[in-house]
């Protein structure tokens, strides 16, 4: 994702002819897009994307469980 952001920024800088990017070849800018595509292919092939997605989902689940546990404890304390 970071490579894509860099590629878009470089494209805007090149299009607006802002130095030093204005003097660069368009092939260099296109190369950053190609590197982004290669990274996504490698990340998907190695399972990196799926693993990160599962880690985020697990963290969300743990946070939700902790929140619910805290709410139950507060509810029980109010009843006493």
What does this structure look like?
- There is one protein chain.
- The chain folds into two domains: 1-46, no CATH class; 50-80.
- The longest helix has 32 residues, at 48-79.
- The chain is an all-alpha fold and 80 residues long.
- Helix 1 runs antiparallel to helix 2.
- The chain has three helices and no strands.
- It starts with a helix and ends with a helix.
Write a concise synopsis of the structure shown.
84% of the residues lie in helices and 0% in strands. It has helices at 2-15, 26-46, 48-79.
Question: What's the helix and strand layout?
Answer:
Blueprint: H1 2-15, H2 26-46, H3 48-79
Unreliable segments of 5+ consecutive residues: none
Main beta-sheet strand count, sense and barrel state:
none
Give the fraction of residues assigned to helices: over 70%
What's the mean pLDDT score? 91
What structural class do you assign from the helix and strand content? mainly alpha
How many whole angstroms does the radius of gyration measure? Answer: 23 Å
Domains (count) = 2
Shape: elongated
What is the helix tally? Answer: 3
DSSP summary, beta strand count: 0
What percent of residues are in strands?
Answer: under 5%
User: What is the H-and-E element order?
Assistant: HHH
Distance between the termini: 51 Å
């Amino acid at each position: 994702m970071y490579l894509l952001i860099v590629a878009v920024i470089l494209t805007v800088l090149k299009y607006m002819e802002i130095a030093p990017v204005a003097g660069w070849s368009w092939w260099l800018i296109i190369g950053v897009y190609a590197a982004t595509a290669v990274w996504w292919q490698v990340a998907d092939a190695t399972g990196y994307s799926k693993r990160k997605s599962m880690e985020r989902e697990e963290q969300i689940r743990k946070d939700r469980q902790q929140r619910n546990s805290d709410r139950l404890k507060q509810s029980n304390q109010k009843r006493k």
